Batch of 4 targets.
Target 1
Amino acid sequence: MVKSNEMNCPRCHGALSVEKYKGIEVDRCSSCKGMWLEYHELDQLEDKEMDDDDANGMVMFRSYVGDLHCPTCQSGMQMFHYRAYELELDFCPNEHGFWLDSDEEKRVLEIMKQRVKDIKRSSNAEVEWAGMLKRFKSKSFVDNMKGMFRR
């Protein structure tokens, strides 16, 4: 898809200009520093920290009416809590993209980095639990338990 310089910021109505952010071509407002990401660009941003789409989970669980308008189609945008965190993002219900206010792209990356840590911690806990269950089933464990109750 070809980027256009003819879009205006949904927040302050300044002109959006094309720039590279972490290797992704995005539309940024020079006035309020907000960023317009097309749907695939948000996925590309998340991939900078976590590129396992199966482990990513859902981006949004429910949405509600926002007060911005899509810079592509001018439809009223909706809001949601990004991945159930305390980060409200706006999106076009016609699937044109997401609006991130100034520095929210950094928060998206922080959240994805935290998800990677959480998944590793959960995976390690599952491995430890499985090992513990295996030890409980071992003959030596059962013998030790029986020995504790013999007189």
Target 2
Amino acid sequence: MTGFKRIVVGTDGSDTAAEAVRQAAELAKMSGAELEVVCAAEPIPSWRADARRQGAPDDVSYELGPREEANFALEAAARIAAEAGVNMRPHPMEGDPADAILDVAEETGAELIVVGNKGMSGAKRYLLGSVPNKVSHHATCNVFIARTT
């Protein structure tokens, strides 16, 4: 397999997202591509972030905030990429995850986006949509929907 120089994958830190990252890392390894890992979440109100910090020891309270989960998810993705022997660049972002993935793919000139299939079945997809559905309908490059569930 050749032709991919840049692959974008999204993660939210879940087990299913980790599987999508693993599959994206393997594709990157096979094609010699760089791996761009996106973790995006809707911003949380400052009062909620302050409440999360309450009672935390001073030496860790600075780490507790709106991006803590994104940082943990990106660290886990970095370990997966390192195990596969591929270069990975993290993209912590705020906002809609599908939009963030599409934005990073466009900004980096990616030839492939990898997303997991979570959220593609059941009634929820009709009411709220899903990241893989939105990405597959709006991407300007190839999309690989990894079976993760």
Target 3
Amino acid sequence: MPTPKQMEKLAAKAARRPGPSTTAPDAPLPAEYWESVLKNPRADESGAEKRQRRLSEIQRHVLRISCRRCERTVEIQKADAVRLYGGNALWKDVAQRLLDNPTGPLEEIRIIAGESDQA
């Protein structure tokens, strides 16, 4: 526990520090914010463009797809997807295959991994 003198120093230091921005919530955002948003490489990519990417172009390690109709979600590691479908496969096609397969490819991967562990 700090002494009263230390507490006074901390309080004085906190009072000198600039506080959070006091701009109104409906105030326009600064130009620097919009510049950083527009410079983001993902800003130009629409959902359709994301679906047309090849697996080799995707940076994420875990790929996830979900069905809006049945709310089923399937995840697969990118390395496993590339091994099963190839690096040139379109993400849209791979996602459709993952959702069409009722058991999912993850069981297939587990079986393959289980067999190699026993050998």
Target 4
Amino acid sequence: MPDLRNVGFMVGVLLLFIAAMMLLPLFISLYYGDGDTKAIIQSVIITAATGGLLLLLKPKRKDLGLREGFMVVAVSWAAMAIMGALPFYISGEIPSFTDCFFESMSGFTTTGASILGGNKTIESLPHGILFWRSLTHWIGGMGIILLSLAILPMLGVGGMQLFRAEVPGPTKDKLTPRIRDTAEILWYVYLGISVLEIVLLKFGGMSWFDSACHTFGTMATGGFSTRSASIAAYNSKYIEYVIIVFMFIAGVNFALHYRFLSKGAIGRYWESREFRLYLIIVAISTAIMMSTLIRNDPSRSLEICFRESAFQVVSILTTTGFGSADWEMWGSFAQVILVLLMVVGGMAGSTGGGVKVIRIQVLFSQVRVQLRRLIHPQAILPLRIGDQMIDDGIVHNVMGFLLAFGLLLAGSTALLALMGIDMVSSFGASIASLSNIGPGLGDFGPTDHYGWMPSAAKWVCAALMMLGRLEIFTVLVIFSRHFWKR
């Protein structure tokens, strides 16, 4: 049975960190004087007080066992979403707490689905609240990198259990202070790339405020923008190309970035078979989209077709969700390709959502091995990816994850349809939430919003966001009766 005092203590530490991060939008609010200062101060006080009270729970030991690890991961994300909703709710900018929680969970899970639209536009939010909305992406993105590279592999879930990252990590049986070393390395990489993008976007004509907010959405592959029309509002080739590059970077395993930045080993990218498949998927999908756009409108220039295709392919594959065009107008075939990209997602160890490229790689390798076994039933044919032999336990984990993903997708689609949402839109909202992509299909396309959904449907989608972001089993395991046995 997990030590709840230990879990509460760790969640308290996290909430104090969230309260400290809320000081950044407080400074923004003071600078612009939009009238949201009081609400942010109150949010800081409530969050810090809650975290401080949880710190009074004195844990029996300093490290976390396996069960506490699962509990901390799941409870922390829920607690962050609740506290992150406070600035929206207290300010009155989003009157419904359900909507506030949805927006906050969408931010921290880097989903990017928003209830804002219609009568309440993104541009109508005060600068402090708008900055906090984007900052939740950046905080959640860093948290996901740390989880996927350092914590989830030890817990036995997550794509990075397949390949060990070359960064200091935890021991196999306990979460130890060595995670601090991992976190420090990852923070430097994440922060450094973010600063570079902010500067480059500023050169492209964005304000410092917009540059920072869009960088938060890009590096976390979240997709919250300061404009209702997203990136299309800027109508800038330069800005679109910069964001394409950094979305691509954010979809790559951050351990590879660390190797490159610390050792200058650029060849490590190409040595990664997952990276090669990721690059191939981007190239082929962009070519398909480009040919579709040219066929639909031969008068359009090749550069425009390439830019729009590359932007949407990288945006959807990395589950960022930024929009430079309305891809629902590109035809059914293009939408099918984009939906497949939503499922695939980015690389393991990245901020991208979805199933992850490495799991798709394992799936197809397993299919290939099974076909060979039909021809050579007596042969011993281990599953390999390059020189890496994949253990049967990992294959079972991948198959279990894909099955759970499919069941959740089917079940949630049916549940949303039961609430009166048409089937295409129900599927679109479900896959967009579970893959942490934001824009979906039907009434939840790239130019639509989630504000009109029934409240119950918003809670369903918020739960899907958390399940998808935390690799499904990390959350489901705490509902198992075996988890609570002594």
